[in-house]
Design goal:
14 helices, single chain, five-stranded mixed sheet, 15 strands, alpha+beta, 511 residues
């Protein structure tokens, strides 16, 4: 939309969702003609609104921070909240309200709305628009449509009815809360009329939009058409009620101009929901999203509520800008470039090439050192004794109340335990050690009951299996790492000595 002149162009896509080459060429050619016809200046801004397909919306609570710190915090939050890294996303944010104190925090914070989409979704549009001499700025179509709402109530929703699907975006206290794609569109009503009247698809589509001007001879078809449309609207109402529970719903899209569709949908929704149809100016290129962008440009000086930041990749070619100067100026420029290119390239690129060569030379000299360090670390990893894994298995196999006075292990795989446990638990403890698959042999060498006959002093010896025969212990590795990080080495050594020196019941203390 450029002033009072609009343009609508169809899109043709491949199976993977990308635009066909023929479609890209047609779009570029038609847009260039449109801009030349209406006297566009060099690289004007193009405010663009994209659909909600593939878009994710999140509400994030962050502490108050400066603009630079907020950007870093948002990058970290996006890595946690979204399945793709920030570099593969085109994302933007806006504040949902003034700063406030977050829950369980003393410092003031702020609640942000983050919108993200895969970068490939809008890269094609960006390349085509740049190739036509425009500077595109992207935002979400649902946010652009909100500028057309006649009133701004506290909580409401906007339903844009498309051909095969619809977009539902809800607002709470003037800020976007959620966005959903509903698998329902105007084609559903056309198919319902086609099925009930047994007519062709084109006739059903024409009858759907011309129901008010239908002749009296078709008066007997009206109940069937209205019943079919009402049945489809009830399906749409079910989808809306599962995703939104408000009281005010605005309707946009070509199908929203059907006779009494707002009243019928409000009846299907029930619960006192009020439906209101927006009335954008009719004409080519005047969708609700496009007119919403126009209103933002008029009121806020072209400042959109949210901008999806898209950084052009260096590994993807961009479409060449159109020729906007006179042929004579281009001819002089090309002639000067041809004369300067053989010398200018060598002069301009020489410092950069020398820097790259120095970097490669330094990196090549560091490779032997890296190989030696890697070999040493690999040797340590493959030859370390699994003492912590063995202790982890013993701890998991021992019953509550078990106490070990002495634990001895060596690199050959010999394990010796001496401790005290319940009388009936010694055999069970030995069985668990065998079932763990970590030991090749477990021998209960001593089993002496205490004077009260309720506990027994045991001595067990075991032998580790070979490294290739031992099972891997993913659960134990995290526990062992936590134990190593939280307990100092000196404290572990002291605890081990104290356990070894502790006397058994009924025995004299030994120095």
């Amino acid at each position: 939309l450029n002033g009072d002149n609009g343009l609508e162009l169809p899109l043709e896509r491949l199976a993977n969702g990308q635009l066909t080459n023929a479609c890209r060429e047609t779009l570029t050619h038609r847009l260039r003609d449109f801009l030349k016809q209406h006297g566009a200046w060099l690289r004007p801004r193009a405010l663009c609104a994209i659909s909600a397909r593939g878009v994710s919306l999140r509400r994030l609570a962050l502490p108050a921070a400066s603009k630079e710190e907020l950007q870093r915090l948002l990058v970290l939050q996006i890595e946690n909240e979204f399945p793709l890294p920030p570099n593969d996303l085109a994302w933007g944010y806006l504040q949902s309200g003034p700063e406030k104190r977050l829950r369980n925090e003393a410092a003031p914070g702020q609640e942000l709305i983050v919108v993200a989409v895969k970068k490939e979704t809008i890269e094609e549009y960006s390349e085509i628009l740049i190739g036509c001499g425009l500077s595109p700025i992207f935002t979400l179509g649902g946010l652009a449509r909100s500028a057309l709402c006649p009133a701004q109530p506290g909580s409401y929703a906007i339903l844009d009815i498309g051909r095969s699907h619809s977009e539902l975006i809800s607002f709470e206290n003037g800020a976007a809360a959620s966005i959903r794609i509903l698998p329902w569109g105007g084609e559903n009503m056309t198919q319902a009329i086609e099925k009930r009247l047994e007519i062709s698809h084109d006739e059903a589509e024409k009858m759907k939009f011309n129901l008010e001007q239908a002749p009296d001879s078709n008066e007997e078809w009206r109940p069937k058409i209205q019943a079919g449309i009402q049945e489809e609207l009830e399906l749409l109402a079910g989808l809306i009620n599962r995703n939104w529970t408000g009281k005010k719903l605005y309707l946009t899209g070509k199908s929203s101009w059907l006779k009494d569709i707002a009243t019928a949908l409000a009846k299907a929704l029930g619960a006192g929901v009020e439906c209101e149809r927006m009335e954008p100016r009719p004409g080519e290129g005047r969708s609700a999203a496009t007119l919403g962008l126009e209103r933002y440009s008029e009121k806020n000086g072209g400042r959109l509520p949210l901008i999806l930041d898209l950084k052009t990749r260096k590994d993807r070619p961009s479409v060449a800008p159109p020729i906007l100067w006179k042929w004579a100026a281009w001819a002089c420029l090309f002639a000067a470039a041809l004369l300067f290119l053989p010398y200018g390239e060598a002069i301009l690129l020489k410092p950069q090439l020398l820097k790259k060569l120095a970097t490669l030379k330094a990196y090549r000299e560091s490779l032997p050192k890296i190989d030696r360090e890697l070999s040493f670390l690999h040797y340590l990893q493959t030859n370390q004794a699994p003492c912590l894994d063995a202790l982890f298995i013993v701890a998991n196999s021992a019953a509550p109340g078990t106490r070990f006075d002495a634990v001895s292990m060596n690199r050959r795989g010999d394990l010796s335990l001496r401790g005290m446990m319940q009388t009936m638990q010694a055999a069970e403890f030995r069985s668990k050690l065998i079932d763990s698959g970590f030991f090749s042999s477990v021998v209960l060498e001593e089993q002496t009951p205490t004077p009260d006959r309720q506990r027994v002093v045991i001595r067990i010896t075991a032998q580790w299996k070979q490294p290739g025969a031992r099972p891997s212990l993913p659960a134990s590795s995290s526990a062992v790492k936590e134990l190593k990080s939280e307990t100092p080495a000196r404290e572990l050594k002291t605890s081990k000595l104290e356990n070894r020196e502790a006397p058994a019941p009924g025995e004299k203390s030994k120095k």
